[in-house]
Amino acid sequence: MGNVYRYALMIFGLVMGLAQLGINVGAALAGIGVAGIAVGLAAQDSLANSIAGFMIFWDKPFEVGDWIETEGEFGQITDITLRSTRIRTPLNTYVVVPNKRIIDAVLENFTKHGAIRIDVPMSIAYKEDIAAARAALLAAMRDLKPLKTDPAPDVVVPALGDSSVNLSVRVWIDDGKDYQAARFAVVEASKVALDAAGIQIPFPHLQLFWDDVDPRVVQRLGALRAGPDGPRAAG
């Protein structure tokens, strides 16, 4: 914004100075206007990014230092310009995202409101006891870093799946920079805790039931399975 103001003031001063010297600047301004239209048509993307940059400065969806996720990129904002936003990722890579793409995309800010909650999906078999699974998971979260103890972690049942009881391990962290590390730690600790408690995490599976099947169909399938060289091994 400072650069835009400075250059605009310089151009305005130059035009006023030339006018005071008696130089006819009308024709020059008309020519500059025509040239400006041509440049604008040739640089639509750059202008769109600049307008999006103004919207970011005005709206303030994030600031330098915030941890965000947008366009599939997670990291810390290191710089905001009129054309682009620069993000430093946990891989220590430098990602430049055009401002127009940020304005048009869904953006998640992990810093703006302080502490944040992470919901980690987990599942157990229908034959398992939900209370026992909850106790095992909460015990695993008790001393896990960098989780907060207030609010305390909890485990809820958001849905019943096709082949499993779906659980959600909900934990809180203080800083958005710990989001990925905390999520990875919760997933690993949950798996270890359920294994130690002997609670099954089921694989997706499909049960097929045959009702009122004609015996001739079963016989025909058996004959096809046996083949010309005799019965085949099952499997």
Write the layout of secondary structure elements.
Blueprint: H1 2-20, H2 26-42, H3 44-59, E1 67-70, E2 73-80, E3 84-88, E4 94-98, H4 99-104, E5 107-109, E6 116-124, H5 130-141, E7 154-160, E8 165-173, H6 179-196, H7 215-226
Antiparallel strand pairs: 1-2, 1-5, 2-3, 3-4, 6-8, 7-8
Helix pairs in contact: 5-6
Q: Could you walk me through the main structural features you see in this protein, from its secondary elements to its overall organization?
A:
By secondary structure, this protein is an alpha+beta fold. It has 3 domains: 2-42; 55-109, Roll (SH3 type barrels), CATH 2.30.30; 116-196, Alpha-Beta Plaits, CATH 3.30.70. Helices cover 43% and strands 21% of the residues. The protein has helices at residues 2-20, 26-42, 44-59, 99-104, 130-141, 179-196, 215-226, and strands at residues 67-70, 73-80, 84-88, 94-98, 107-109, 116-124, 154-160, 165-173. The strands form 2 sheets. It has a 5-stranded antiparallel β-sheet. Strands 6-8-7 form a 3-stranded antiparallel β-sheet, with helices on one face. β2 (73-80) and β3 (84-88) form a beta hairpin. The mean pLDDT is 82.
